[in-house]
Amino acid sequence: MPNIEPDSSARRRVHVAVGVISDGGGGILVSRRAEHAHQGGLWEFPGGKVEMGETVQQALHRELLEELAIEVQECEPLLTIAHDYADKSVLLDVWWVGAFGGEPHGREGQPLRWVVGAELRSLDFPKANEAIIAAVEEKLSAKGN
Known about the structure:
Helix content is 18%, strand content 37%. It has a single domain, classed as Alpha-Beta Complex (Nucleoside Triphosphate Pyrophosphohydrolase). By secondary structure, the chain is an alpha+beta fold. The radius of gyration is 16 Å and the shape is globular.
């Protein structure tokens, strides 16, 4: 039987739970990716990989606790984005976090920053985050922020 190698272009998509964390007054929390990480040095909305057997909400709660030391109290789906980079494919499951407990801080040493919606466009984000920024602007505009 011949040994058939899988097509290298058929990458498995990494499923990521992403939190757009709002302070309730128009501020959105962003964090800076570590230089050694995929898309390193760019700003992002916090979150991480959905593990086997985990729901997206469970992953979001776990990741934000691990990364930021906050406990999600209220969240709702915002949008889902499938994006292919040259070296990786991602499925971003993005949630609006409207309430949380604790004071966010970068537990992994990552810088954090509260920004108002208009400031998001001045920061460098991974390409897949463009749709998130547009959705955040729309949501903030609808709320009058």
